[in-house]
Specification:
Elements lengths: L11 H11 L10 H10 L13 H15 L1
Helix pairs in contact: 1-3
C-alpha cells in the first residue's frame, strides 16, 4: 500500500474491505465495538484525523460494510 494511501473513520467502505481481507476468520456480527475500533486502528494506512472522532454510528456503519464485504 503506498504511503499516501491513507484512510480514516469516514471511509467506511474501505475499512469494511480491509477488515474482510485481513480478518476472514472473524465474524463481524460477534465483534464488540471496542474490539472493532481496535481492529480498525491496527489497519495499515489507517489514520485518525483531528476533529473526526469515532462514535457508535461510525462503528455500526463499518460493521455493516464488513458484513456486506463478506457476502
Amino acid at each position: 500500500m503506498p504511503a499516501d494511501d491513507n484512510f480514516h473513520w469516514l471511509d467506511v467502505a474501505r475499512i469494511g474491505e480491509e477488515l474482510a481481507e485481513r480478518h476472514e476468520d472473524l465474524d463481524p456480527v460477534s465483534i464488540t465495538f471496542p474490539r472493532l475500533k481496535a481492529l480498525v486502528i491496527e489497519l495499515p494506512g489507517f489514520r485518525e484525523l483531528p476533529g473526526h472522532p469515532c462514535n457508535e454510528r461510525i462503528l455500526e456503519a463499518i460493521q455493516q460494510a464488513w458484513i456486506e464485504e463478506r457476502g
